Amino acid sequence: MNEIYIFFGMGGYALYVWSSFGFTLIIMLSLLVKSYKNNKYNLKTYEELKSYSKRFKENNVKKP
Amino acid sequence: MFKIFLSIIKRDFKLSYRQGNTNLNIIVFFFLSISLFPLGVGPENELLSKIGPGIVWVSALFSSVLSLDKIFQADYEDGSLEIINLSVIPLEFFVLAKALSYWLTTGLLLVILSPIFGLILSMSSKGILYLTITMLLGTPTLILIGTIGASLAVSLKRGSLLISLLILPLYIPVLIFGVSAIDASINNVSAKPQLLLLGSLLCFSIVLSPIASAAGLRINME
Amino acid sequence: MKKLHKLANPGKFYRLSEKILPWSNLLAISLCGLGLYLGLFVAPPDYQQGETVRIIYVHVPAATLASLVYAIMAITSAISFIWKNPLGSFIAKAAAPIGAAFTIIAIITGALWGKPTWGTWWIWDARLTSVLILFFLYLGYIGVWQIFEDQNKAAKAAAIIALVGAINLPIIKFSVDWWNTLHQGASIIRLDGPSIHSDILIPLIFMWLGFISYLISVLIIRIQSEITLQKIRAIQIMISEQK
């Protein structure tokens, strides 16, 4: 128990050390998540557009 | 080639003489922003003489940012830029001529007036001398760097000021060395290294910024 | 050279990046984990700075990568500008937010490190100021992409801004040598060998490699996103023409 306390205490500088690690983690993770979500969203849009243009072409061919 | 260079400068001179107003506006803006500082920080002469170099330089920086974003605008809109692009003179030379004539009509005025600003801000005579020298070396650099942003913004209807602001970080070395040269001279230390650095910045920008600005103008003419 | 040319094709790059991505993910997690374990549990506290020295494990990798990403951006911008290669501008555009993130991490952790060791959050010293300028350059670069509606124009304008701003990189690197200010000089990459103890250096290297793997992963994801966006634009144009 005591060791854990010492570890997280960081010699009295816990606030500085852990907030810098935490800040780094938050920024890096949020950038990763945002990029990943954006990529998935773009891929989905692309697939939808592709199937849309396919249907569009088929309809255009049938009409005349 | 040199003849065309001169004729561009001559034309700009005539234009600015006939319009007159815009260049005067810059000087008035410069004067006003400097006279606002004593009202903001208090009228103590000691404090003012200490921060005087910084005030003059920051005002010079802002007035060039605010005025420069339209430097190519008229030429772009009336099509003379297209004609120059098709003519024998390279666009780089045109940018250089534009910057030079712009400096002669506005920057030089600021340099001539800067001793007065130094007096208003109760700087020492040595400080005033170095203020004038650094302005002489620094204002052409500011204008040359500013042409880069102006060239990119030339076709934009909105956000042209934003692009000029993008160039603002590039002004910082000029600001740092300009102010530190004056500070060094006031503290009786040799200001030679700072002046040399300002001179080298000017040389760099004479060579590099016309290239970048011409590239920027070409993008907007495609 | 021929191989490079093939790689510069967005489609080829996409397929290759799909293969790299799982490996860089794995490396990022394992190297950062190992680095954190060694840095937090194994390495002893510094005899001068005490436990605060552990901030080095996030501060130094982020700070070095902040300028490295800008260098990548400037080089790929130059390639896209000179050879009119779309992939170069995709890479540069994808890299900018990552570089901005690393820069803000370096600034904030630097402030958190500065308070206990220097006694101040922020000081207008040459290194700190030049890194702050770097952050503004990243923001400006991202802004340029949004101002121009025509993406081809935006790519070229952004390339010019990136190349002009690259002047800041040597200023950042040598700022600690040219001005003798509070930020300490280079202590890892030096001619006479590193001046910090191996207990700290080894975890730091692991963290650095972990950050690089993270950079590769996020960069790949973002570039893929840009390539897909380009395809979306192409399809939209096709559909509007058919109508």
Q: What do these coordinates show?
A:
- The complex is a heterotrimer of chains A (64), B (222) and C (243).
- Chain A is mainly α.
- Chain A has helices at 2-9, 14-62.
- Chain A starts with a helix and ends with a helix.
- The model of chain A has no long low-confidence stretch (mean pLDDT 82).
- Chain A has a domain at 22-64.
- Chain A is rod-shaped and about 75 Å long.
- The longest helix of chain A has 49 residues, at 14-62.
- Chain A has 2 helices and no strands.
- Chain B is an all-alpha fold and 222 residues long.
- Chain B has one domain (2-221).
- Chain B contains 9 helices and no strands.
- In chain B, helix 1 (2-19) crosses helix 6, helix 2 runs parallel beside helix 6 and helix 7 runs antiparallel to helix 8 (160-186).
- The two termini of chain B are 25 Å apart.
- Chain C is mainly α and 243 residues long.
- Chain C has helices at residues 2-7, 10-42, 56-83, 86-118, 126-147, 151-165, 168-178, 198-242.
- In chain C, helix 2 (10-42) runs antiparallel to helix 8 (198-242) and helix 5 packs antiparallel against helix 7.
- The radius of gyration of chain C is 20 Å and the shape is globular.
- Chains in contact: A-C, B-C.
- Chain A binds chain C through residues 7, 10-13, 16-17, 19-21, 23-24, 27-28, 31-32, 35-36, 38-39, 42-43, 45-46, 49-50, 52-53, 56-57, 60, and chain C through 40-41, 45, 50-52, 54-55, 58-59, 62, 97-98, 101, 104-105, 108-109, 112-113, 115-116, 214, 217-218, 221-222, 224-225, 228-229, 231-232, 235-236, 238-239, 242.
